[in-house]
Every structure is written in structure tokens, then in C-alpha cells.
Give the backbone structure.
Amino acid sequence: MAYLLAVDDEKDIVELISRFAEHEGHTVDTAENGAQALSLCQRNDYDLIILDIMMPEMDGFTFCKKLREEKKTPVIMLSALGAEYDKLMGFELGIDDYVVKPFSPRELMARIKAVLSRNGAARPKAELLIQGIRIDTLAHEVFVDGVRTELTAKEYELLSYLIQNKGIALTRENILNAVWGYEYFGDDRTVDWQIKLLRGKLGPYRKCIVTLRGTGYRFDEKA
């Protein structure tokens, strides 16, 4: 599994890439232009970048030039242009593959897998990263803004489940079944109580656990 960055000014495109890549088990950050992407690359080490060419503020070619001054992160370039010149320019800048829009998400996932394999970038998913929360899935430890946070076993499982299903509305029943198991016969208010305790340990990210009145909860990294 890998840590990916999807860069495109079309919101539907980055959402599509994110949905399919996360289904494959990857972690995905997104940016809407090259300038924003460059800032993210200065803070994070990505295994692969999926990059559009035509974007505001900083286009894909300019981004690649600046990226290659510091990093050799593999890049798959996306473009509706499809012209030979653009492909050649991309490869001269050191991209690893080129996909013309509109593209098949399944084909893109296959190309991502191939590039990661060639570059030896795919790695076991030993951690979950979102906002300032990092979960070490091997050691079962949670860090908030770099500081280790003590969680109970159930709090750990609950947080992991919420983050793995970020952006998805989860009913209390969904959560009970996933975290406590199908044989749990307690009151679903148990979920509310555990959510309250968990929020208290997440500091500035407590608001990421959004209450859905009459339904349950959703983990929203933009909340």
C-alpha cells in the first residue's frame, strides 16, 4: 500500500481517484493546483503523485520542474490534451507514465500499481495518517500532533474504524458491529459515550468526528 498525492483542479477527478485508490488500500492526499501540491510535497514524502497538466496558479509542467529539484517521487501525468508534445515534455521532466483524460479508474489503478512496483515504492500499510493524527497500526499507538496519546483498546479500534471510513456516514449499528462485534447486545448509547471520551483525547481534531443527528457519526478531516 502507498501514500499518494492526487493533484487536479477538477474536484470530481480528485474525488474519483481518491475513492478508487483508497479502495485499493492506499492513503491519498489531494491538491487543486501545483503550488498547493508543492507545499504538501515539502512536508510529506509521497510514494507517487497523480498530476494534471492544465491547472491554475502552477501547471503540471512547472510543478514537475520544481519537484525534480528536490525529489525523485514517481509521477503519473493526466491530461485531456493527449498531444505528442505534451507527452514528450512530461517524460523529459522525468514523469513515469502518462494517462489521457477521460480515463478508466481501473486502468489508472493498474498503472499506479505498475509504477509503484517498478520503483519499489509500495510498502506495507503500517500507519494511518490524517490531519495531525497518526495511527501506528503495528504498535497500536496513536499520536496527535506528534505526541503519543493513551487510548483504551476500544478507543483505538473506534478511531481506526472512523478514519478508515472517513467521509462515510456510519450508523451506531455500523459502529457497534465493527468495533464491538455482532454479538454485542448492549445499548447503542455505548457508542455515544465512547465517542465523547475519544473526542476528549484528540485535541484540536475532536471536531473531525461529526455527529449526524438521528443517524450516527462521520469522520470529516475538513471539519
